[in-house]
Amino acid sequence: MVGTSSANPGGVSALRYAELQVTSHFSFLRGASSAEELFAQAHACGMEALGMVDRNSLAGIVRAHEAAKTTGIRLVVGCRLDLADGMSILVYPTDRAAYSRLCRLLSVGKKRGGKAKCVLHWNDVEAYAEGLVAVLVPDQADDLTALHLRRLRDAFPGCAHLALTLRRRPNDQMRLYDLSQMAQALGVPTVVTNDVLFHEPGQRMLQDVVTCIRHNVTIDQLGHRRERHADRYLKPAEKMQRLFSRYPEALARTIEIADRCRFSLDELKYQYPEERDDPTISPQEMLARLTWEGAEQRYPEGVPDSVRATLEHELRLIAKLEYAPYFLTVNSIVRFARSQDILCQGRGSAANSAVCYVLGITSIDPGRNDLLFERFVSEERREPPDIDVDFEHERREIVMQWIFETYGRSHAALCSTVIRYRTKGALRDVGKALGLTEDLIKALSSQVWGWSEEGVTDEQVKDMNLNLGDRRLRLALDLARQLMGAPRHLSQHPGGFVLTHDRLDDLVPIEPAAMADRQVIEW
């Protein structure tokens, strides 16, 4: 049956369809639209759910989660697994435990593949299959696809599917028919997807350009590596029903899968690691003990009454907000650095904390300066404290490796940073993809200073005596503006760690950094 709803006035049935194969621009240099654009378009199409399946990655899933909240379109959390043997599978966690298994699976592949790569084999997928709904992405209805489908059926009992997707190639309808017949013979249900790479047809050219950038070729050299049809955008249910009118059950199954995969990122709860040298006392009691010991060392002639009152006030607020473990973490890192004679200094709003001063984290004496602790920790804001500590550049790696060793590599990793296209980078890569000469690209880039929202203006082009009527030049300028702000790749934060009590790869995939012995999360 076609997915319908009879809730409309007048008894007119409304078609229902959820697009379950959507690639965002966090499948770096492959997707051409942001999560915000994709979910806004899904809302305009009247969809109720959207499945985000970036390639071997969950890097963009937080932004998709936020876009889903903004638009009211439900996010179906997912991932496309491109295996080393060429097999591709869409997987969607049905619950929190299955999501953790997906994160661990991706971490396994990323550790094996190294920086920005993910190498997964079929036995890896089998080991982490529990709780995942899987959809095989086939090519032709041949013996290899049949083998993959049997494997999928056996590894995902009751949760295996085969995708039916138009390719706009000769004999496309016969290909879909053969695939559906194969799936029926093997007892695997089919599901319609559109394999979306951009949110609306106008993004097709940009998608071609990022494909050129990924392959490091010009548009004239791209050939068959170019996506072969312009249909890879979000379509409303009515249009999908017309395209797949022979497969109403496969259309309806998109809603069934979306309803089955109800996991939400809202279910993730961060747990700070326990921090105490003595397990018989609480973190707050440990912090209080260290605070008063530090106060005696800072004020050997006696703690001034005003400082004592400030310390008591801060400790009460820290206890109320349950931030003691965080202070203990920073204290232990600073204590280690100083034990190795590594220069370090806390800075920023933490300088308003008397507790940070007596612990030796900062150097602003509350006895000589008027401090405002609420600038640092506020009950009204309910924001975690932020203690920035600088370490001497030549020896900071010693501190970072100590953190990895102390907390364990399954509980500690650096944050990633998203390297996005700025004006010069966008002009350079788009110009190269469109075959502009190196001299022309350099000349255009020379007109840009810093971050420019507009890119190179028409006035600047005219001043350079360039012909704005040249279609390739005009296209390069327009596409460079579209590309600005898009993510190009992930890099590592210079020193921002995430530490957890439970396994970190239960929350987010971990991958090796470019530098030896470092690792980063995807967010």
From TrEMBL:
One Pfam family it belongs to: PHP
InterPro entries, sorted: DNA_pol3_alpha_NTPase_dom, DnaE2/DnaE/PolC, PHP_dom, Pol/His_phosphatase_N, Pol/histidinol_Pase-like
Family annotation (CDD domains): PHP_PolIIIA_DnaE2
Statement: the UniProt record of this protein carries the keyword DNA repair: yes
GO biological process: DNA repair; DNA replication
All residue ranges annotated as the Polymerase/histidinol phosphatase N-terminal domain in the record: 18-85
Keyword Transmembrane helix: no
Key words, A-Z: Cytoplasm, DNA damage, DNA repair
A GO term for molecular function: 3'-5' exonuclease activity
SUPFAM superfamilies (UniProt xref): PHP domain-like (SSF89550)
Name of the protein in its database record: PHP domain-containing protein
